[in-house]
Design brief:
This protein is of the alpha+beta class. It has helices at residues 2-16, 18-27, 41-70, 80-91, 102-132, 135-138, 147-152, 221-232, 285-309, 321-346, 351-365, 367-371, 377-420; strands at 168-176, 183-194, 200-215, 238-243, 247-253, 259-262, 266-275. The longest helix has 44 residues, at 377-420.
Length: 421
């Protein structure tokens, strides 16, 4: 009797709780992932139940539409009567007779797994839609609890006017507590770091400068002269910010890729959105239309490939579920590589970085040659190894180019400030 009760409970949990848990896990991502466990126990339990019912409805409606109108069925051997018999047996705390046959148990297992996969996929798609189209700004019920993200999020065009798809960089002036006096840092936002309670823990910035204020007194004349000599020699260490009658302010560049400031040391900060002028070419309407179409197709391809895994096919290349899984994973990685190529072209990156993206695209693409039996597998392995070697060479050159580009940008900024002062 105890075993039957345990089986009854497990089945109900698998049907009415797991899909909701998976949906929420894939909906609360990135800096919002800690929101998954926030709230009272009863509130979370009800949200999980509602999420599970929502995922089950979408999954079965999708299965019905594909089966009735397109002839594509996930599982051919399961009918409404089978579900009815299953829940009747569970209500009586009995093991369903339907499970006596190995094939039926296998079909139900595949159905459960596909439901879980669709639940995660639905959660991820909803997260992408909410974030990409700012749905949470319109429907506040979908708003996440993390207010820091909304504060640093790129504002709407009516607040900061810009061209379509023009990138905005977040520039920060952060005033912090020092040992003897307050210290002011300036840099571009890299990432917000949170603790386990979803509270801001620290701020990571890049291209960092520190403001140094020196009183114009005889004791500091040598120090001021040394800094001015460094500026004159263009050593890329200091730049003149402002001169006053009784003091002078310099900016010292900090040689660091990422600089982390603890929240408890922050007194206040100033936030400025800086336009990226490299995106001025987006004035062409046909280019905007192509990019938007590509984004929409990318969002549709991933769910289509997931559905394809569970659709039976008579083709020799897709006759088994394992072949369909391999094809789906290969296609998703190829899509990611394609996005990388498009992103490199859009950002007008250096030729080496664009070539690296193209090589990644080719690396995943050559595996199609073996999958469809176009060339032998050993030829594909040879080609993939060759491409990996080229990618390794381009990776080293790309890092050097990025380093030189950052130094050039900082030097130009420093030189401009010195000319202005």
């Amino acid at each position: 009797m105890n075993l039957n009760i345990a089986l009854n409970t497990i089945i109900y949990i698998m049907v009415f709780l797991f899909p909701g848990v998976i949906f929420r896990r894939f909906y609360f991502l990135d800096s919002n992932k800690s929101q998954f466990s926030h709230g009272h126990l009863l509130e979370r339990f009800l949200m999980i139940i509602l999420s599970s019912i929502f995922c089950l409805i979408i999954t079965f409606v999708l299965g019905f539409v594909l089966g009735e109108y397109f002839g594509l069925r996930f599982i051919n051997n399961i009918s409404y009567e089978d579900f009815k018999e299953l829940f009747k047996s569970l209500a009586k705390n009995e093991l369903p007779v339907f499970f006596d046959q190995k094939e039926n148990f296998r079909d139900f297992s595949i159905l459960f797994i596909s439901t879980y996969i669709f639940s995660g996929l639905i959660g991820w798609v909803f997260y992408v839609i909410v974030k990409a189209f700012r749905v949470d700004d319109v429907f506040l019920v979908l708003r996440f609890n993390n207010e820091w993200d909304y504060l640093f999020k790129v504002p709407k065009k009516n607040l900061v006017k810009r061209k379509p798809f023009q990138k905005l960089n977040v520039s920060l002036d952060i005033l912090t507590k020092g040992q003897n006096q307050e210290v002011l840092y300036q840099g571009f936002l890299y990432k917000l770091l949170y603790n386990k309670d979803n509270e801001l823990d620290s701020i990571a910035i890049s291209n960092v400068s520190r403001f140094i204020e020196i009183d114009r007194i005889p004791e500091n004349e040598n120090k001021i002269t040394d800094i001015q000599d460094s500026i004159a020699k263009k050593e890329y260490k200091f730049s003149l910010y402002k001169k006053f009658q009784n003091k002078i302010i310099f900016k010292k560049h900090i040689e660091s890729d990422i600089f982390v400031i603890d929240k408890k040391d922050i007194i206040n900060y100033n936030l400025i959105f800086v336009k990226d002028l490299n995106f001025a070419f987006f004035q062409k309407k046909w280019l905007i239309l192509i990019i938007r179409t590509f984004i929409i197709l990318s969002l549709l391809i991933v769910p289509t490939l997931i559905i394809f895994i569970f659709v039976e096919s008579s083709s020799e290349y897709f006759e088994s579920i394992w072949k369909r899984i391999v094809f789906a994973l290969l296609s998703i990685t190829q899509l990611i590589a394609t996005i990388g190529v498009v992103s490199s072209l859009v950002k007008k990156e250096d030729g080496v970085l664009i070539l690296k993206s193209v090589c990644l695209f080719l690396f995943f693409g050559v595996f199609y040659l073996s999958f469809f039996s176009i060339v032998p597998w050993y030829v594909v392995i040879g080609l993939s190894i060759s491409i990996l070697i080229v990618i390794g060479i381009l990776e080293r050159k790309g890092k050097e180019i990025e380093r030189l580009a950052k130094e050039k940008l900082a030097k130009e900024k420093s030189a401009k400030e010195n000319e202005e002062n």
